[in-house]
Design brief:
The complex is a heterodimer of chains A (157) and B (827).
Chain A (H helix, E strand, L loop, with lengths): L6 E8 L2 E8 L4 H8 L18 E4 L2 E4 L12 E3 L12 H8 L9 H14 L5 H7 L11 H10 L2
Parallel strand pairs in A: 1-5
Antiparallel strand pairs in A: 1-2, 3-4, 3-5
Helix pairs in contact in A: 2-5
Chain B lengths: L3 E4 L25 H4 L16 E7 L5 E7 L1 H5 L3 E6 H7 L23 E2 L5 E7 L2 H8 L3 E6 L25 E9 L2 H7 L2 E10 L11 E7 L4 E6 L4 H12 L6 E4 L14 H14 L3 E4 L2 H7 L5 E11 L5 E11 L10 H4 L12 E9 L14 H19 L3 H8 L8 E2 L5 E2 L4 H11 L5 H10 L3 E15 L18 E7 L5 E5 L8 H13 L6 E3 L21 H27 L8 E4 L2 E4 L2 E7 H10 L13 E6 L16 E15 L6 E11 L6 H20 L31 E6 L18 H13 L15 H9 L1 H4 L3 E5 L1
Parallel strand pairs in B: 2-13, 11-12, 15-16, 21-22, 28-29
Antiparallel strand pairs in B: 1-29, 2-6, 3-5, 3-7, 4-6, 8-16, 9-14, 9-30, 10-11, 10-13, 14-15, 17-18, 19-27, 20-21, 20-26, 23-24, 24-25, 27-28
Helix pairs in contact in B: 6-7, 10-18, 14-15, 17-18
Classes of the chains: A alpha+beta (157), B alpha+beta (827).
Chain lengths: 157, 827
């Protein structure tokens, strides 16, 4: 048990806004994003790094933000689901999820969108197999993924 | 009736067409999606309040133990800790939860926290509240609990042995509930049979749907009025309320349930009432809002496992041609440690007693026992899935033993479309459907004609190909009167749901529902129904997100569970909107100076005189007149433009003595066909082709329906191949998180083809049928496909619903030991 915790001042840019906060060294990045900054779009679905609901992009790399401490993101540039739309206009991928009924409860959706965003940045025209590999780290319990594959395919066209 | 038909190969993008005549039947884009794709949904863990404390539950590491002491003093002394709650306090402040069961289950004393004893690994003993999640966990480690461990019982088959420990002394043993169901004339059926097929044991395994969002609540206590506001993702607030009110010694007006977006439910979020009581007590005790978000591991260890069921000594009376005459079996249900919704599983299966078949003589001896495992509660396909798996297994085992074609045996015995509505031996009424036609569609989708050729092609590659069928019913809209078969003292029957539809001051059409959707798109489908009646656009209809029992828009059975929204929810919406349309015409008639309603029509977002379309009153004017400009209206004008309708399905109380009656209003149908290829070296297999054919009557939004079909298919495939809440002999859960409990991932998904027929229900206002649970058709299909692939390769009989690769390997290597014991006696 740890009763002694150390705090540290960190500076993180999220979706273009820079936040300076004092955080406990042990605080997970996802809890920092959700609890401290109230950016509740990114979700938590497991304790073990399996589900991907908390996926965000940190300095260009796809990261499960429950597998990273907030202090590790110090000085970093984080992108979350809240940054995908341009004002009122949904991103192509968001629109494709909507058009293809690629979401039901919407709980996995933010993480799924971030994984798909990272995939399409590195591979703008993925094959079906590559789409599946790109989303392998994200669990969806509603859709069976089929419509998600279609949405990513549609967004890549 | 002649069902309309359409067969599509999914997934495909469907163009959203402007409605020719109706919004119903169109793939209207979901209203929910815009907020959800932007991360703007409000899920329970997103709800925050100033000064709130975070709850962490201290849970039992033992499956069965006396609690000899609890010391929370060190935890309470830790800076940042707001307080604790123990079982002792709970027992003083609350009464045990009402038990659904008759004796002996009725004698259980179930509280929000363990009192005196723990009965499964993961049972909550103490709740700790602190200023952060992390601090609450720190403090929970300072709670000192002494135990006196007891032997655990984890195998339901041994639960009633003399040598095993008693889990609930109050019940005098581990038997929780027993009932015998018998219909028809078993003796005559077995006398008439040419063959009697006997199956020693079948086992339906323990798993659940593991919604991605775990349970949770944010609870505030208003001490001035003594009311709790419970922001939660509980999916059946009506049930939670009747459990919590009496236990907390409070009226239901003091329990306000609020939901908005819920991250999946699948039945697993019905029985969170013990945790909600703990939250309520803490909010009052500490004088601050408290927040509880369940950890994934906690969910797996303690929440709503699906019913594990054994079928013993099954005997099937059958003619040589495969005609099924009757069956008898002994069902043994493993309830786990508490009866949180149980033993309703002991009757719910009876909604689908003969499966899809014309069996007229049936006996089921049903026993439910307690074990030292997590409590079971509803899980997608609740209790019917177990029974339908049984009927499908029986069909395929009979076909295997009599060397008959499983397709032909099914078609021979299916309830026929011309016999519908069809009364089953126990008085349920199958409303409509064409099962043989659906099977043909499914077989065509996987190119069944060429299966022999594909089998030899696979064999040339060293693979064993198998085809399996799963035919199921998704019975929807419960008659809660069936609970009296469990306990004649219960005073439940029928069902209901509520909707309100109003015109607000500026003409806004506002819809409120009693339901708690978890992704089923209620906001969208409700708007489609409203827009058709009010002759406006779906964009003009504002459907409030979620449930709030503070509004007058709920009834005793409100919630989202058990495949019923398209019947109960949408019928309530239709009822309320019809009332509103009538009131709008009444108002317009008065405004136009006494024009009768028959001379008026709704069109273009307003009401007009049919013969004089120039005389037009937009909804905005209607809303403004009634709400804010009503002087001078006729005194007898009985119009509020705020209409509430309670839909009540046409049910009778079942005959409890005969266990006879209509238990559900509608029967959606699913027929799935799986084609698998097994690697005989390893037992690993791949689903190489898959078809899911669905019939849920009129589809309000086909795309949403298909989404449900896909989701149910994925759940079934996960359960059939990997998902299992396995326990060791000491009662430790071996799969307490997503590392060990493998749910389907993207790369696990096989190609999927979907088809649909539409057989409108004659019993519902919109011709719809509840759907979404899917009856576990994929489990049945995969089991059948494995057995088919093993034909001529050991001929093992598949007797377990979960067939991971190692089990298939065992079936190949040791077909007699690993497979089931089946005998056929000629008469």
């Amino acid at each position: 048990m740890s009763t002694v915790t150390s705090s540290r001042a960190i500076k993180v840019t999220i979706n273009g806004t820079t936040y300076e906060r004092e955080v406990e060294a042990r605080k997970l990045l996802i809890h920092f994003i959700r609890d401290d900054l109230d950016l509740t779009g990114s979700h938590i679905g497991c304790d073990t790094g399996n589900c991907g609901a908390c996926s965000v992009i940190v300095d260009g790399s796809l990261v499960k933000s429950c597998m990273m401490l907030a202090v590790q993101a110090d000085g970093g540039n984080v992108e979350t689901v809240e940054g995908l739309a341009e004002g009122e206009e949904l991103s192509k991928l968001q629109q494709a999820f909507k058009d293809n009924h690629a979401l039901q409860c919407g709980y996995c959706t933010p993480g799924m969108l971030m994984s798909a965003t990272a995939l399409l940045r590195s591979n703008p025209h993925p094959s079906e197999d590559e789409i599946k590999k790109g989303l392998q780290g994200n669990i969806c319990r509603c859709t069976g993924y089929w419509n998600i594959f279609e949405a990513v395919k549609a967004a890549s066209e | 009736m002649t069902p309309a038909s359409s067969t599509t190969t999914a997934p495909e993008t469907t163009e959203v067409e402007a409605p020719a005549e109706e919004w119903k039947g169109q793939n209207v884009p979901r209203k929910e999606d815009r907020r959800l794709v932007q991360g703007q949904g409000v899920f329970v863990d997103d709800v925050k309040r100033h000064g709130m404390g975070f709850i962490h539950f201290v849970r039992s590491p033992y499956a069965h133990a006396h609690i000899t002491s609890i010391d929370v003093s060190k935890a309470e002394e830790l800076p940042g800790v707001y307080g604790t709650l123990t079982g002792e306090e709970v027992a003083a402040l609350t009464d045990p939860f009402f038990q659904i069961s008759s004796v002996p289950g009725a004698n259980l004393k179930d509280y929000a926290l363990a009192v005196g004893k723990v009965r499964y690994v993961g049972e909550a003993i103490v709740a700790v509240v602190a200023e952060t999640r992390e601090r609450a966990r720190d403090a929970s480690e300072l709670v000192e609990i002494e135990y006196e461990p007891l032997d655990a019982i984890t195998d339901a088959r041994r639960a009633q042995d003399d040598s095993v420990p008693t889990i609930h002394e109050d019940a005098g043993g581990n038997l929780m509930w027993h009932g015998t169901y018998e219909w028809g004339d078993l003796d005559a059926a077995f006398a008439e049979a040419d063959k009697i097929v006997t199956i020693d044991e079948l086992h339906f395994h323990r798993f659940n749907s593991t919604p991605l969002e775990c349970d949770g609540a944010l609870v505030e206590y208003n001490r001035g009025v003594g009311q709790w506001t419970i922001h939660t993702n509980n999916q059946f607030p009506g049930f939670a309320a009747i459990m919590m009110g009496p236990a907390m010694r409070t009226g239901l007006d003091k329990l306000r349930f609020v939901t908005q977006d819920i991250g999946g439910g699948f039945g697993n979020k019905i029985t969170s009432h013990p945790q909600l009581v703990a939250c309520c007590l803490l909010a009052r005790k500490l004088g601050r809002p408290v927040q509880w978000t369940e950890w994934r591991t906690d969910f797996h260890m303690s929440m709503s496992h699906g019913n594990e069921r054994w079928f013993h000594e099954t005997e099937v009376a059958v003619k040589s041609d495969g005609t099924l005459l009757g069956f008898r079996t002994k069902a043994l249900d493993d309830a786990g440690a508490w009866l949180r919704y149980e033993p309703l599983g002991g009757v719910i299966w009876a909604q689908v007693t003969p499966g899809m078949y014309k069996w007229r003589n049936i006996r089921v001896d049903f026993t439910q026992v307690a074990t030292n495992k997590a409590p079971v509660s509803p899980n997608r396909g609740y209790s019917r899935m177990q029974h339908l798996w049984f009927t499908e297994r029986v069909i395929d085992i009979v076909a295997h033993e009599l060397d008959l074609d499983p397709v032909e045996v099914r078609k021979l015995n299916y309830v026929k479309t011309e016999d519908m509505p069809y009364e089953t031996p126990n008085g349920c009424v199958y409303d409509s459907g064409d099962y043989s036609r659906m099977l043909d569609i499914g077989l065509d989708l996987i190119d069944y004609r060429n299966v022999a050729q594909r089998r030899s092609e696979a064999e040339a590659r060293g693979k064993l190909l198998g085809v399996g069928i799963g035919s199921t019913l998704d019975s929807g809209t419960n008659n809660f009167g069936q609970s009296r078969m469990i306990n004649p003292e219960l005073q439940f029957s029928g069902n209901n749901e509520v909707a309100t539809v109003k015109l607000d001051i500026f003409g806004e059409i506002v819809v409120t529902l009693g339901t708690t959707p978890q992704g089923q798109g209620h906001e969208t489908t409700a708007a489609q129904v409203v827009a058709d009646i009010l002759k406006c656009s779906v964009d003009d209809v504002h459907v409030r997100a979620g449930h709030d029992s503070y509004w007058n828009s709920h009834a005793g059975f409100s919630g989202t569970y058990a495949s019923q929204f398209a019947v109960t929810g949408l019928s309530a919406v239709k009822g309320a909107t019809d009332l509103l349309a009538g009131e709008i015409k009444k108002l317009a008639g008065a405004v136009f100076g006494g024009v009768p309603a028959e001379a008026l029509e709704l069109a273009d977002g307003g009401v007009r005189i049919k013969d004089n379309p120039e005389a037009f009153l937009p909804f905005m004017a209607c809303g403004a007149i009634i709400n804010a400009n009503n002087a001078g209206l006729p005194e007898d004008l009985d119009v509020t433009l705020n209409c509430r309708y309670v839909y009540r399905p046409p049910f009778q109380v079942p005959d409890i003595e005969r266990k006879f009656g209509n238990l559900t209003l509608t029967y959606a149908t699913q027929i799935h066909v799986a084609v698998i290829e097994i690697d005989p070296e390893t037992g690993a297999y791949e689903i190489v082709d898959y078809a899911a054919v669905d019939d849920c009557g009129n589809r309000i939004n086909p795309q949403i329906v298909e989404g449900q079909v896909m989701g149910a298919t994925a759940h079934a495939l996960g359960a059939a191949t990997h998902e299992h809440f396995a326990y060791d002999e000491d009662g430790n859960l071996l799969t307490p998180n997503f590392y060990d409990y493998h749910v389907p991932h993207a790369m696990d998904m096989p190609p999927l083809k979907t088809g649909a027929t539409e057989s409108p229900s004659p019993f519902t206002p919109l011709g719809t049928k509840g759907m979404g649970e899917g009856g576990g058709a994929g489990i049945h299909a995969v089991c059948a496909a494995v057995q088919d692939a093993l034909r001529g390769h050991g001929d093992a009989i598949v007797t377990d619903s979960c067939n991971p690769y190692h089990r298939v390997w065992e079936l190949l290597e040791q077909p007699r030991e690993a497979g089931g014991r089946v005998t056929v006696v000629d008469r």
